[in-house]
Design brief:
Largest sheet: none
Structural class: mainly alpha
Radius of gyration: 12 Å
Number of strands: 0
Shape: globular
Distance between the termini: 17 Å
Number of helices: 4
Helix content: 40-55%
Mean pLDDT: 81
Low-confidence stretches: 1-8
Length: about 90
């Protein structure tokens, strides 16, 4: 783990920010949701920051991002999903 709580697995490609040139270069659709649900990938403070600043726009329940309703449902509930799945580690 590095100093901000992310493992060295190119998760900068999942974090949307105008200052991040690596965003969207190459990622798997389920990786963004794994940041939200897996407690050993990203610490709670970093995840809360990313959710508050809408830095995980690809986090979704399905791999097909053309399904806008599913994507919007996940985006509207990222904080709830993280609190429910991670519990004390959020």
């Amino acid at each position: 783990m590095n100093s901000i709580g992310l493992p060295p697995k190119n998760y900068e490609q999942l974090m949307k920010d105008p200052r991040n040139p690596f965003y969207g270069m190459r990622y798997h659709d389920d990786d963004a949701m794994m940041l939200v649900t897996e407690t050993d990938i990203c610490d709670g403070a970093m995840l809360r920051y990313m959710i508050q600043h809408q830095m995980l726009p690809d986090a979704s329940f399905c791999e097909n991002h053309e399904d806008k309703e599913s994507l919007q449902l996940a985006q509207d509930n990222l904080d709830f999903i993280a609190r429910t799945v991670r519990r004390e580690k959020y």
